[in-house]
Amino acid sequence: MAEGDIANLKNRTEAKLRYAWVHLNELVTTIPYHVGDDFERAHQESFLYHFLGAKDAFLAELNVYYNCKLPPDNLTLGELRKARKKLNKKYHEITALHNLENDDTSWLSKAKVMRDYATHMHGIARTYHHGGPHHGNVFLRNPKTGDNIEIHYVDEFSNWLSLMSDLLQKLRESAIKNNS
User: Fold this and answer.
1) Which end of the chain has the lower number of beta carbons within 10 A, N or C?
2) CA–CA separation, 124 vs 31, rounded Å?
3) C-alpha–C-alpha distance, residues 127 and 144, integer Å
4) pTM of the shown model
């Protein structure tokens, strides 16, 4: 693949991160009371779509960095793992993403569960607090466990997005270094 094609893939990953920031910024600046209306719900779901879309776009980068030659319409973490096994090679970046995505306590796993649930079942599960020590906070609720993430969801989304940005940058640098 040409250098320009690799740059395009990297730009796509970065665009998905920027789009997630756009939706998060709108949630922070245009929704003063977080009432759960359609505007707010649409932005929450769009945030998760683009947030996890950045990880999916990064898989296309890994596909190229490691010359796995998977077709774009069958590019998943599982398929990259299979390709890696066929090549009898270990790729730290694929393993790191797999482990993070499959650790039920990780931020990536929690975000994926929420996105999948919102996409296929119902809206994003939340707990609204009126009165008491958490008055005004809206906590995300894991639809699998029912547990609350006890931080206001916009703060949690912001944390997740920072973690994702840092992770993808670190994994990109590692993949490029290991492929040089």
Assistant:
1) C
2) 17
3) 15
4) 0.83
CB-CB contact of 100 with 112 (8 Å): no
> Are 125 and 140 a contacting pair, CB within 8 Å?
yes
| pLDDT tens-digit map of 54-71 | 999 999 999 999 888 899
Non-local (6+) Cβ contacts of 112 within 8 A are 52, 101
> What value does the mean pLDDT of the chain take?
83
Residue 53 CA to residue 16 CA, distance in Å, equals: 6
Looking at the chain, list the stretches that DSSP marks H as alpha helix, in order from N- to C-terminal side. Answer: 3-30, 38-65, 77-86, 92-102, 107-120, 153-179
What is the rounded distance in angstroms from the CA atom of residue 81 to the CA atom of residue 86? Answer: 9
pLDDT tens for each residue of 159-175: 999 999 999 999 999 99
**Rg (alpha carbons) of the chain, rounded to whole number:** 18
Distance CA 176, CA 180 (A): 6
